Amino acid sequence: MGLFKKLFVFFVGFSLAFYFYSGDEFKPEMLKGKRIIVTGASTGIGEQIAYHLAQMGSKVLITARREERLKEVVAKCLSLGAASAHYIAGNMDDMVFAETVVKEAKNILGGLDMLILNHIGHHKYGYFSGNIDEIRKLIEVNFLSYATMTVAALPMLEKSNGSIVAVSSLAVGKIGVPFVIPYASTKFALDGFFSSLRLELALQNSNVSISLCILSYINTDAAVKSISHVVNQTPAPKEECALEIIKGAALRKREIYYEYALAKFLTLLRTWAPEFVDYGLSSTLNIENMKPA
Ligand SMILES: NC(=O)C1=CN([C@@H]2O[C@H](COP(=O)(O)OP(=O)(O)OC[C@H]3O[C@@H](n4cnc5c(N)ncnc54)[C@H](OP(=O)(O)O)[C@@H]3O)[C@@H](O)[C@H]2O)C=CC1
Ligand SMILES: CC(C)CCC[C@@H](C)[C@H]1CC[C@H]2[C@@H]3C(=O)C=C4C[C@@H](O)CC[C@]4(C)[C@H]3CC[C@]12C
């Protein structure tokens, strides 16, 4: 091969590698002064997201049901360096409340740069009882409130070239798993809603980004308490998980995988060999510890 041809092949290879593997670099200053709503921030991953944002100098508006916990999180955010920190307490089974939180962002923050949708309603971990009401209730909290807040936030996000972040799950937003049927239904719905909305926005030349987070097992109190007798895997740290969500959101990634290798691999494997993923998942569960339906 002539020298020019060799160089061309090298150049094309290098360019492709650069195009696919290089990303913009994350800098904490990207979040400085940004006006951000975080839902489900009284505990777990949402609480950790609020603390990271506070350290980066953002203006945070957090929400969940427990007012006392929210007060504590707001106080810690301020001590960590948040440009401002406020809370609104309420229940996301009420769509008027969901919309109010976004409207209040206009009054409290003067606009919105990022909407982080993270809350989930209480659900049991076990065989599905067959009660459709369990699904209906969880759809309200885990899905319809996300859609409601998104619709209410879009005009402000259009103005700020802002971002929407929807926290979903590897094993239930991409892969079916047993014992979480109502929850799984709501997480699959998120993918349909947000992936389709992303495309509709792009077709209208919108500059609002949508990031869907595909998370594996994370060491929040709620998760560990409900599944540690059945799932042997070591959960990943919630602090690092929260930081990866923020980084991906700031870089406007369409999907954020954490823990990256496991989550990405299982998602890809599911497309090629779903039976294999089902088999692997079933064999990691201690189902002898699960009460019959
Ligand atoms: N932990 C894990 O292993 C995984 C988690 N995820 C996802 O990460 C996100 C966070 O999970 P995690 O931190 O573990 O969850 P937690 O259970 O720790 O936190 C849930 C949050 O939602 C709030 N919440 C619960 N019910 C309502 C309600 N009806 N209205 C308003 N707020 C409510 C809770 O506060 P309060 O009780 O005060 O209302 C709390 O702040 C979820 O979207 C989850 O699906 C995905 C994969 C794995
Ligand atoms: C194949 C294995 C290596 C990985 C399997 C990981 C599976 C078992 C992990 C990955 C994501 C996990 C669930 C999740 O998304 C969120 C929650 C919410 C919490 O309140 C209760 C626990 C629950 C349902 C987790 C249950 C266990 C799941 C399915």
From TrEMBL:
It is found in: Endoplasmic reticulum membrane. Gene3D superfamilies: NAD(P)-binding Rossmann-like Domain. One of its GO terms (cellular component) is endoplasmic reticulum membrane. One of its GO terms (molecular function) is 11-beta-hydroxysteroid dehydrogenase (NADP+) activity. It comes from the Eukaryota. One of its GO terms (biological process) is steroid catabolic process. This is 11-beta-hydroxysteroid dehydrogenase 1. It comes from Latimeria chalumnae.
